[in-house]
Amino acid sequence: MAYRFVKVTSYYENFLRIYYSNYPEISKSSYQIQYRHLMDQFYGWSDFFAQHLNKLGVDAYEIVFNAEFLQASWAQENNCKLEGLDLLKFQLKRLNPDVIFFQDSMKFNGNWIKELKESIPSLKLIIGWCCSPYTMENLKQFHNYDFMVVCSPRFMNDFKNAGIKVYQMIHAFESSIINSIDPKPAKMNDISFIGSIMGGKDGHLERLYLLNELLNSSIKVDLHARIEELGIGELKLRQSGYIVSRIVQYLGLQSMTQKIPKFQKLYVLNSFPEKLKNISQIKAISKPAVYGLEMYNLLSESKIGFNAHGSFAGDFAANIRLFEITGVGSCLLTDYFSNMNELFEDGKECLTYKSTDECIDKVKWLLSHPDELKQIAEAGQKRTLKDHTIEKRVELLNDIISKELN
Questions:
Q1: How far apart are CA 115 and CA 305, in angstroms?
Q2: Whether residue 142 is found in the same domain as residue 188
Q3: Mean pLDDT score of the chain, rounded to an integer?
Q4: Which range of residues forms the domain containing residue 144?
Q5: Nearest to residue 61, comparing CAs of 5, 10, 13, 105?
Q6: Residue after which a domain boundary falls, among 243, 267, 291
Q7: Could you tell me where the DSSP H helices lie in 275-333?
Q8: How far are the Cα atoms of 2, 26, 83, 336, 387 from residue 344, in angstroms, in the given order?
Q9: pLDDT tens for residues 375-389?
Q10: What is the mean pLDDT of residues 32-47?
Q11: Is 208 in the same domain as 332?
Q12: pLDDT over threshold 80, residue 366
C-alpha cells in the first residue's frame, strides 16, 4: 500500500557530542551530505526503517529532531527561521505525511500531538514507540497517539489495561551492518559489556551488581559504559524537580508545563533520584561509551557478549542488546526470562542465567569450551539473521499501518 511515512527520532546527546567532536567540519555541509554521513554511523535504527519501507513502495523519510546542526542546515536551505518543535512542525507540514512514527514518544506531549493532527490535512496516523520506563503521566499522554508500538509483552499488558491501542514489535538487528564490520582473525576479548548503567527503581542496579561480581571473580570484562552518575548539584536539582513535578500532577496543572522540556524529562522519573552506589570498581576499568559502527566492531571482537536487562523489563526479555550481540556473531549470555525461548533456543543459540553464581559459572564454562562457545555464537547469529532483522520488523510495521489505514 502506498503512503508517505516520516519517522522522527532523538539521538543520545552523548553520541551527538562525540559525533560532532570527531567530525567538526560536517556541520558546515549541506543537509543531504550531513544526513547521509550521520546515518552512515549506524547509530540506533539509523534510517533503516526508511530504507526498507522504500523497498516496499512506501515514500519514507527520517528526521533526527535533536541533531541541531543537521536541523539548522535544513532550516537554512528552506528559508525557515524556526527551531525546536516549531521547526519540526514546519518540516512535517512541508512533507505532508500520511503517517508519522515518533520513536521518542515521551518527548512529544499530548497537546502538541493534537495540534499536529489539526495542522496537517494529509495526516491519517500518528504512531508512538515505547521501549523504556514510563510513568502514569506518560500513559495518559500516549492516548493522543492513534496507537502505540512497544517492544515487550509487559508493556502490551500495561498499555491495554490503560485503554491504549497497542501493537508489539520486538527489537532487531540490521543485517547489512555485517558488511561494514572490520573482520578480525580471532576474537580479542573474552567477554564484553557495552551499555548504560543508571540508578533508580527502573534503572540498572542488578546489572551493576552482576558486573561487580564478574570482576570480583577475576573475570576480565571489556567494559564500555555510559554511567549516569550525577554530581551533588545536579542530583539535588533533579530531586527538587521530581517533587515539584509530582505536586504539579497532583494539582492537575500539567498543561501549564507541557511546553517546558525540563519538566517533560521529570515526568519520566518513576522514583526519587538517588546517588548511584557501588560504582567505583566499574568506573576504574570502564572505557568511554561507544556507539554505532564502533560499538558493533567492539562487540564482534568479543567471544561473549554479556547482557542484563533493566528492572523495568519485568518478566520479559526485550532489549536491543540481545540482537546486537548475536547479530555480530558473538555468544549471547543473558538473564533468563519466561519468553526467552521464543527469541532464542537456550543452550543452543544463547546461554541464560538465573543467578549470579550461574552467570559466573557459565562464563567460565564457555571460556574453557571454545568449540561449544563458537557453535552457540554461530547458531545465535544464524537465528538473528533469519528471524530478527529490521527488514522483518519493517514488514510487520508496514502490515500494521496498512491495516490501520484501511
A1: 44
A2: no
A3: 89
A4: 4-172+389-405
A5: 5
A6: 267
A7: 280-285, 292-300, 321-327
A8: 34, 40, 44, 11, 10
A9: 999 999 999 999 999
A10: 97
A11: yes
A12: yes
